[in-house]
Amino acid sequence: MRLILFGSPGxxxxxxAKIFSEKLNIPHISTGDILRQSVKDQTEAGKKAAEIMxxxxxxxxxxxxxxxxxRLNKPDSQKGFILDGFPRTEVQAEALDNLLxxxxxxxxxxxxxxxxxxxxxxxxxxxxxxxxCAKIFTLEEIKGLDNCPxxxxxxxxxxxxxxxxxxIRKRLEVFKSSTMPVLxxxxxxxxxxxxxxxxxxxxxxxxxxxxxxx
Length: 214
Ligand code: AMP
Prior knowledge:
Rossmann fold
């Protein structure tokens, strides 16, 4: 299965991508996670990306296209993949089409996960990441915990700079102006499956599964 999970920041793409990646045994390719890893590794590209990400803006297309090219050329991507956070601009969507053609990949399903803006701001404000393994939790999930339930690191929860309210608003603005056109791009090509992103994690996974089957 090859899947593009489209949707605004904070709509739950990462959570659902992880679930389906485990269920289907295919890689979850999150460009945000790849960038955060290069920030953590303090590579030159990572240092440049950190400033852009902290402002809630988009990393340049050429950088992102190279990242996705490398990743899709890795052997584990041959059996399928779930893209989370890519493509985020029309230029990226066109580059992805060219790349898929080169790789002789024909069918990719596009799921548009939706939620209204106020719900998204509320969710992003209430999420925390682990500094060590980067897994995202809600405040409820880590209430009273000192150690990360995923990697056991102590006192590792933090509010990502780009999850602070002023940056969230910027990210949503960028989503509307630069990323929404990607949806039109895919709608013109064929079917985009719309899934309501409001509900429990399980309910949303069920809806995605049902939509994919039909
Ligand atoms: P995410 O975790 O997907 O919300 O990504 C976090 C940040 O990484 C975004 O706000 C952007 O600054 C950057 N980023 C991730 N994916 C892309 C992309 N496809 N194009 C440009 N910037 C990206």
